[in-house]
Amino acid sequence: MMTYLANIGSFFLYFISASLLTMAYVGIYTKVTPHDEWELIKKNITAAALAFSGSLLGFIIPLASLIIHAVNLMDLFLWGIVALLVQLLTFKAISHIMPCISERLANNELAAGIWLAAASVGAGTITAACLTY
What we know:
It is found in: Cell membrane. By secondary structure, this protein is mostly helical.
């Protein structure tokens, strides 16, 4: 039985580290975007929930790849920061392609939410693939 649990310490170390990175991501992303994701979601604005969920998945997908491929926790944290920056740049790029994205999300324009979510997941998937070193 103990053989099966030999790596439980590493599991918890990586799980807690990934959880901390995810919480940091959520905090930073929600501060950087001009709209208040939490307020919009509380108001049942589907477009905002879709966009934010896509962004979160766009961060978590590379994070999962990092957990698989990272050589140590420092590697996980450093490349986790890169994954975070990719998501912030994705939002910035979409903001240029689709002006007034925050207002569109606040107005519950589903097309805007879906587009931002897809771009975020796409950027995250490409980031994850690039992290397979």
